[in-house]
Specification:
This protein is an alpha/beta fold and 158 residues long. The protein has a single domain, classed as 2-Layer Sandwich (Nucleotidyltransferase, domain 5), CATH 3.30.420.10. The protein contains 4 helices and 5 strands, in the order βββαβααβα. It has a 5-stranded mixed sheet with strand order 3-2-1-4-5. The two termini are 27 Å apart.
């Protein structure tokens, strides 16, 4: 088992994440790849009844949680929902008691709170990558998300 204990003075952790859902809602999976120098770790998981946005968030949260100390992170995602949420919307949501501009509770509040907690631990450079465009990190994260779904579906049908 690879444990990610990173000395931020040495290197930057590059993280690629993706979420997938078969039906929206439906069974969903998430995948993440953490790379630090020559060290690489792949993660994936699934939920039985979820949405693509929840899986995108869970991929990022799971990757950042895997880092056992404060780190410099380049986080690459194809999710505008995650990237805009964390860079543009979250501060107002917090000021407004986790309500949107139209005073409705925000969707996925539990995951946004968990992500906000993880982001406080790290120095994250958020980068958008076009999904399904041949980017190796994004393609592998997508494959891991689908492995998560396939693994879950195999377990429940056994």
């Amino acid at each position: 088992m690879v444990v990610f204990v990173v000395n931020e003075k040495k290197k930057v952790v590059v993280v690629n994440t993706d979420g997938a859902c078969r039906g929206n809602p439906g069974p969903g999976g998430w995948g993440a790849i953490l790379e630090w120098g020559d060290v690489k770790k792949e993660l994936y998981g699934a939920e039985p009844h979820t949405t693509n946005n929840r899986m995108e968030l869970l991929a990022v949260i799971s990757a950042l949680t895997e880092l056992h100390c404060s780190s410099k992170v380049i986080l690459r995602s194809d999710s505008n929902y995650v990237l805009q949420g964390i860079s543009k919307w979250i501060e107002n949501w917090k000021k407004n008691g986790w309500k949107s501009s139209n005073k409705k509770p925000i969707k996925n509040q539990d995951l946004w709170i968990a992500l906000d907690k993880q982001v406080q631990r790290h120095d994250v450079d958020w980068q958008w990558v076009k999904g399904h465009s041949g980017d190796p990190g994004n393609e592998r994260a997508d494959a891991l998300a689908n492995i998560g779904i396939d693994t879950y579906l195999k377990e429940v049908s056994a």
